Amino acid sequence: QVQLVESGGGSVQAGGSLRLSCAASGVIYSSYYMGWFRQAPGKEREGVAAIYISSYYRTHYADSVKGRFAISRDSGKNTLYLQMNSLKPEDTAMYYCAAGRTLSPLTVRDYNYWGQGTQVTVSS
């Protein structure tokens, strides 16, 4: 069983930055991906970024955040991060951390474990 707890959300103005954290406990297998997803009101949950546990270099990003967001992981602290720069109002959403074994790292359905989410609000 895996538990995930997100933190770091908040309210910022457009152009600002935030860093989200996801503290993981339990067994995270080396074959897992960990990812960040977001869901805005009235919209479906979408993949933002994902990283393969066995390789820090195997990362995936949604086109909408490439060049602005960076996913990373501190294996010693068992913590996942999402550095978000140049934030835009359209980045406003609840952000979720997830873990699971998947062939489609930005696809919601393959992830088994989810956190409760942290709210990010970007004002113009």
Molecular shape: globular
| Radius of gyration over all CA atoms, rounded | 13 Å
Helical stretch tally: 0
- The first-to-last residue Cα distance is 40 Å
Q: What is the count of β-strands?
A: 11
Spans of at least 5 consecutive residues with low confidence? none
SS-derived structural category: mainly beta
Q: Helix-strand pattern, N to C?
A: EEEEEEEEEEE
Q: What is the residue-mean pLDDT, rounded to a whole number?
A: 95
**Proportion in β-strands:** over 45%
Q: What kind of sheet is the major sheet?
A: 7 strands, mixed
The helix content, as a percent range, equals under 10%
Description of the molecule:
This protein has 124 residues and is an all-beta fold. The chain is built from no helices and eleven strands. It has strands at residues 2-7, 10-13, 18-26, 33-39, 46-52, 55-61, 69-74, 79-84, 93-100, 113-114, 118-123. Strands 2, 4, 5, 6, 9, 10 and 11 form a seven-stranded mixed β-sheet that branches. Strands 1-3-8-7 form a four-stranded antiparallel β-sheet, with no helix packed on it. A hairpin with a 2-residue loop joins β5 (46-52) and β6. The chain is globular, with a radius of gyration of 13 Å. The mean pLDDT is 95.
Helices and strands, with pairings:
Layout: E1 2-7, E2 10-13, E3 18-26, E4 33-39, E5 46-52, E6 55-61, E7 69-74, E8 79-84, E9 93-100, E10 113-114, E11 118-123
Parallel strand pairs: 2-11
Antiparallel strand pairs: 1-3, 3-8, 4-5, 4-9, 5-6, 7-8, 9-10, 9-11
